[in-house]
Q: What sequence folds into this?
C-alpha cells in the first residue's frame, strides 16, 4: 500500500512540475536601442519557479523509483519459496 501511495505522490509531483514549468517564463518588452528602432520582446525566466520545477521533478523521480522498486520487491518476495507464501496463479 505504501508503494502505491508513493506512486500517486510521484504523479502529483510530476503534475506540479509541469504546471510550474508552464508558468516559469514571461514575455517582456525590451526598449529600443536607438531612436527610431522598434521595441522587441524577450523571454524572462523566474528563478524561484525554475527551482520549484526542478525540486518537484526531482521529488517525482525519487518517489517513482522508490514506488516501483517496492512493488517489484514485494512481487519477488511472494514468488520465493523461502517466504512460505505462494504466488497467486495467473
A:
Amino acid at each position: 500500500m505504501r508503494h502505491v501511495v508513493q506512486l500517486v505522490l510521484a504523479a502529483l509531483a510530476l503534475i506540479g512540475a509541469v504546471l510550474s514549468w508552464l508558468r516559469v517564463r514571461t514575455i517582456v518588452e525590451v526598449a529600443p536601442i536607438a531612436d527610431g528602432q522598434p521595441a522587441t520582446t524577450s523571454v524572462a525566466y523566474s528563478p524561484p519557479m525554475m527551482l520549484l520545477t526542478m525540486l518537484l521533478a526531482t521529488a517525482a523521480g525519487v518517489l517513482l523509483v522508490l514506488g516501483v522498486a517496492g512493488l517489484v520487491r514485494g512481487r519477488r518476495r511472494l514468488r520465493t519459496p523461502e517466504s512460505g507464501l505462494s504466488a497467486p496463479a495467473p
